[in-house]
Recover the amino acids of this structure.
């Protein structure tokens, strides 16, 4: 049919009315034959339409120049796979979070911190916000970060989770790597770090600090603030230690643009080991 239709357009351009009438009749005849042939096999014209995995964008990945939700979900699935978060988040999420490891005032303080985390998620698309979680080793900072990560990733937000060591190792290889792919790695790494919806930097302070890590940490913090991209940082260090390692300038940016929360309690991992039914280390 497409050939006849194209010829009909040509006839119309040439104003050949006789040929146009012939073509219209031929198109009508072939259409009737097609309809009858489909009916013999219990089919309709709609059965000839392409079947798209995503009917919204027709598998192009874009709608009006913007990434379709299917494209975003594919990116999320890739991030899940690359960061190995999928397996972790199946175990560490709000559904598995327990207050039983906190006692007295610590439990109430943790309830407020969890409520703050849920508000962070609820307002994520309407207000720019960042979180700094401080606390001793094993008080639940990583677990709470994972709770936030899962909720946002499940709603098609891109979340990049990196320990401080992984972050600075990634940036170091991008900046100082050798070989023909160095420039390409640099161009790919920094947008990956700067443009994701949420960057989680876990265990800040466990890396070996030097002039490079200090400057790159400020770059990450400052650049994401300028781009209005949210960041969640967790650390075992207190504010004074953070100031001494990462400079007054960096801490000033954090204080002005981050909600800072202290997680209470002692090492939950030790408590779990000592709990009845668990062998002591």
């Amino acid at each position: 049919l497409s050939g006849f239709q194209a010829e009909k357009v040509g006839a119309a351009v040439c104003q050949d009315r006789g040929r146009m009438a012939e073509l219209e009749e031929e198109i009508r005849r072939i259409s009737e034959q097609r309809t009858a042939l489909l009916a013999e096999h219990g089919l309709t014209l709609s059965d000839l339409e392409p079947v798209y995995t995503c009917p919204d964008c027709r598998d192009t990945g874009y709608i009006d120049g913007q990434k379709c939700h299917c494209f975003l979900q594919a990116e999320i699935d890739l991030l899940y796979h690359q960061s190995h978060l999928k397996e972790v988040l199946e175990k560490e999420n709000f559904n598995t979070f327990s207050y039983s490891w906190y006692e007295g005032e610590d439990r109430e303080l943790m309830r407020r911190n969890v409520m703050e985390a849920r508000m962070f998620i609820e307002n994520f698309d309407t207000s720019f916000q960042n979180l700094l979680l401080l606390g001793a080793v094993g008080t639940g900072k990583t677990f709470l970060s994972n709770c936030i990560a899962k909720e946002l990733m499940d709603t098609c937000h891109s979340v990049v989770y990196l320990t401080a060591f992984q972050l600075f190792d990634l940036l170091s290889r991008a900046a100082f790597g050798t070989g023909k792919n160095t420039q390409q790695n640099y161009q790919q790494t920094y947008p990956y770090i700067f443009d994701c919806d949420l960057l989680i930097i876990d265990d800040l302070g466990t890396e070996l600090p030097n002039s490079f890590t200090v400057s790159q940490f400020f770059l990450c913090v400052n650049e994401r603030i300028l781009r209005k991209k949210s960041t969640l940082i967790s650390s075992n260090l207190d504010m004074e230690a953070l100031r001494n390692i990462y400079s007054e300038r960096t801490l000033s940016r954090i204080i002005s643009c981050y909600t800072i929360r202290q997680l209470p309690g002692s090492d939950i991992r030790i408590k779990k080991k000592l709990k009845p039914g668990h062998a002591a280390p």
